[in-house]
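Hey, I'm writing a tutorial for new members on how sequence and structure tokens pair up, and I'd like a real worked example in the thread rather than a made-up one. If someone can provide the structure for the chain below, I'll link this post from the tutorial.
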Amino acid sequence: KKPHQVGEAVLEVKDLLVEGQRQQVAVDNVSFTVHAGEVLGIAGVQGNGQTELVEALTGLRSVQSGQVLIDGQDLTNSTPRKITEQGVAHVPEDRQRDGLVLPFPVADNLMLNTYYLPPFARGPVLQETVITQSAESLIKQFDIRTPGPKTAAGSLSGGNQQKVIVAREFSRPIKLLIASQPTRGLDVGSIEYIHGRLIQKRDEGCAVLLVSTELDEILGLSDRIAVMYRGKIVETLLAKDATKE
């Protein structure tokens, strides 16, 4: 990948405290910044607060204290829709639970976060022709292997389900991309494809927060690496200075 051009701070997290499922502290006073045009990778063994951190940033889990600023705007405890409308894309850890509505057709899954906006909707009425045309274009552009836009998302392979999410999240104007375990359970071809798309977004000036338990993925894609252990960020280092050890 090319050397990165770092821009303004897009995501600022200040003293974030988030509780997990059992009311224990999962994210313990974490602070970090992600700038435009860089990938900040969060490394660590699964279960050290990464899932709760991403859920708090995307509006899926409430924050006990601290602040989440996106482009200087305080979005702590905002709704997922408000966060999405600020230009945030989310590739979730569990693609089937949080990323797709499996019985819905591919075309519907490709506009899940913009279905209420023109050109997909005119008032309360969905514009079926526009939705299908947009889906056909994205299927071609993102190489989604599906019999057609009306096929149920649940019948696609894991890699193609992930491509549907990537196509939906990357095809609108975004300034921050939060990708959690983006290549888990995928074949080599799909992994390479998604890595390429992530770096392309960074080169376009998007801020990328990548959470992965795969050290090779973190080392290969990140510009800076933050290590998370027991809910705290214990160290942040430049990727070029980092070894697996």
